[in-house]
Structure formats: C-alpha cells, structure tokens
Amino acid sequence: MGLFNLFSKDKKKSLDKGLKKTKEGFFSKLTRSVAGKSKVDDEVLDDLEEILVTSDVGVDTTLKIIDRIEERVSKDKYFGTEELNKILREEISGLLEENNSGSETEFVIPQQDAPYVIMVVGVNGVGKTTTIGKLAYQFKKAGKKVVLGAADTFRAAAIDQLKIWSERVDVPIVTQKMGSDPASVAFDTLQSAQAQDADVVIIDTAGRLHNKVNLMNELGKIKKVMKKVIPDAPHEVMLVLDASTGQNAIEQAKQFTRVTEVTGMALTKLDGTAKGGVVIGISDLFKIPVRYIGVGERMEDLQVFNKYEFVDSLFGEEQEA
User: Fold this and answer.
1) Is the pLDDT of residue 3 over 60?
2) Residue 270 assigned to a binding site
3) Closest CA to 244 of 8, 43, 66, 18
4) For the chain, which end, N or C, has fewer CB atoms within 10 Å of the first or last residue's CB respectively?
5) CA–CA separation, 304 vs 251, rounded Å?
6) Is 316 part of any known ligand binding site?
7) Tell me, what's the pLDDT at 77?
C-alpha cells in the first residue's frame, strides 16, 4: 500500500527552498565559468569538474559525469555553453535513474502479517532521532500503527530524545535503562509490537564508528535476536547521514556499509547546506536507494526522495510563491 500521495505543490515548494543553497552555489559558479564562452571546450569541462567536486558530488561520480559530457561534445561539434545546463541535467537524471535511487512518489510498506521492521543506523549528531520521530509521524498520519524501540542504550540522551518524540507523535515506545543490552531492547520491542498488532516498528541503534568491530557485532546481534520474533526482520536497515557534512557523509556510508547490510538511506539537513550534490554522489557510489531527504524543520520536511523532483528543483525555474 502506498503511503504518500503524488508530489504536492507544498512539498515541491519545500524541496525548492531546501535545495536553494545548493542550487545557488552551483549555478553561480557555473555561470561564471562559462561567461563569455560560446562552446564547451577543455577549459569549461575542467571548470565544471571543479564545480561538481566542490558541490560534494564526489570525485568518482564527477569523473563519470564529465566523461559522459565529453563523449557528447565529441559527437556534436556545435555543442554550445547554453546547452550545458540541459546536458548536465540529463546526465545527472540518467545517473540517478541507473542507480534506482528513490522511488517516484512513495515509500511502500508491503502488506504482511507481522510488523514491518525498520532498523535505523548512523552516528550521533546526524539527525537520526529526529528522522525516526518524523518517520513515525508520517507513518501514523498514513494510518499505520507504529512502535518505537530505543536500542541506543549507550547514551541516556538518546533514550530521552526518543521518548520526547514518542510523546510528541503519540506512539508507544519500548525502553530499558541506560547500559542495557541493545538486542534485549529490540527483542522486547518486536514482541510488544506483535502483541499490539502494530504495522511498523522503528528501532534506534548506537552508531559508534570508532569501534567498528563492536558496532558490527552489536548490529549483528540485534538482527539475530529480532529474527527470533519475526524471522525476516529487519525488513529495512536505514542509514541516516547528515548531507551538510559532504564528503564526511560519504565516508560514513563507506564505514556503515562495511559493517552491516544497508538497504536504504536518509539524508538530513539539506536545507542548511550548499552540499546537496552529495545526494548524487552517494546514490552513484553505493547503489543503495536514497529513501528520504530532510529539507527543513517541519514534520513534513522529511520527504520521500523523488529523483525527478530533486533534479527539477536543482535545474528548474524558481516556483512562484
């Protein structure tokens, strides 16, 4: 069953606003680099490469885009700088298309007898708890019964924050005291969710990347224990990354994909940064769907990632207020 309607005008406006810094930074640089030039030559391509890298698209993905544009330039000798925007838009769209990043308009929870379990991973400070709260709000608004599990038991603040969100959204939460076994919390949460006939379970986990072996063992144990209650859980392992950290977000994605199987990503804080290009780089490098992007403070500003609308907001004309 689909959870979200077609892209509303209000959501598109939020997306445009959220990507404004990225768009302005990128296009002001691009405009300066092609000023006074009529054709796409090596110098323009070198400038474009630098612009993409400094917009945090990432070196590997940037080279891929430049190679494709060079190929098109070599075929069409009359390729002018005025067409560069259009070609760039097409190549970025094509890249996102290939990587199957982002469903068109909705994130679908399949119909099943047991609750759908989402395990959320990511380091502290990336907006993990806020993302869980906003997800819970959106699922509840869509008529789903949601249960939260506070399995980041290493920080009292993490448990407290999640409790605040559970009260705010008015959904039940399962907690244990700080220092408890995270797997035990996950086990209790799934049992509680089954007893309550819940549709969705969202489990928070600790993200201590400095000790990768411990993190891998811990996430492995949580998964193993979940399977005792719901054999195919977790159905989604969602990695939350802070887009405003740019290349650091890509590094975190590398680390987490090494220690656990990540099936989807959420990129937060796009509205506060000009580093929105990181969405393109992450999508291309990891071939893992970007499920959600955060483009503002409101509950609704955690949006299902729609690759078409994303590219349109980056390259399209400004929307009327």
Assistant:
1) no
2) yes
3) 18
4) C
5) 23
6) no
7) 63
